[in-house]
Amino acid sequence: MKPGGKDGKLYKIHEEAEISGGATAALERSGFYRIKRVGEHTELPQPSNEDLAKGARAMGPGDVVHLWAGQTLAEGDEVIPLRLVLISFVKDVSNSKQGTSYDVSTQENLDSGVREYITGAFSESSGTINGTVETDSEAQRELLNQFSSVAVEDGEHYAIFPAKETKQDYMLSRRETETVGQTAVWEHFPVTVESLNMDKPLDGEQNFNFNYKVDGGNHPGMIYYTVRDLSANGQQGGSQGSDPSDPSGDPEGGD
């Protein structure tokens, strides 16, 4: 059974001031963090022996993870809180992954009429996102500025931003839930936008779709976590993603 909650939203990631570990250092809020450094005697959560046996590794610099309020940080631990700003509601996300394989056939294989291969990890991921964005929002301007210059006049100043393709660091909610015991599913989604299409200007929401390639050097990946009940110690169990400093859920909010 699919847990309740809202899903299919695209958030822009904004980094806040890093938090360093120490004798009394602990996280004040639950949410997503980028690991900057792992101390020698880290207090960050570690994989179980069973997970290690299956090939898992511990979190390391650059990883984007979900941590809970009250998590202590040892000397040498450094994390960067991630503020999520809702920019659009996603209708559909297609994704294609291209794998790699290597021919390791021996003469014996060839003599018997077969070839032998070994496989590598997926090396390239790309696709298309379809959704809606608020007309004249900061999110819309940022997308358009990938391909055309954007001029902004605010009544006092006038600025022209030349077209500049930049890497976009997003978080995509696959399943948002704050129900204790249910599993939330998010995707860290750093991409390069390759092309963009938008419908004619409307009053309010505007349909768009863009083609993307995933930036494999910025630690993309799926994030699963089970919602905890932190009410016993006076803290909330919801994720930072479901409260990205814009509780109304307005794609124009945030920045």
Can you characterise this structure?
- The chain has about 260 residues and is mainly beta.
- The protein has 3 helices and 12 strands; from the N terminus they run E-E-E-H-E-E-H-E-H-E-E-E-E-E-E.
- The strands form 2 sheets. The protein has a 6-stranded antiparallel beta barrel. It has a two-stranded antiparallel sheet with strand order 7-8.
- Strand 10 and strand 11 form a beta hairpin.
- The longest helix has 7 residues, at about 140-145.
- The protein is globular.
- The protein starts with 8 loop residues before the first strand and ends in a 29-residue tail after the last strand.
The biggest sheet amounts to: 6 strands, antiparallel, barrel
- Total beta strand runs: 12
What structural category do the secondary elements indicate? mainly beta
**Helix percentage:** under 10%
Global morphology: globular
Helix/strand order, N-terminal first: EEEHEEHEHEEEEEE
Distance between the termini: 36 Å
Q: Which assembly state applies to the chains in this document?
A: single chain
Low-confidence stretches: 1-6, 236-255
Work out the radius of gyration. 22 Å
Mean pLDDT: 79
Identify the notable features of this structure and list them briefly.
255 residues; mainly beta; two-stranded antiparallel ribbon; disordered N terminus
Summary, kept brief:
With 255 residues, the protein is mainly beta. The chain is 7% helix and 44% strand.
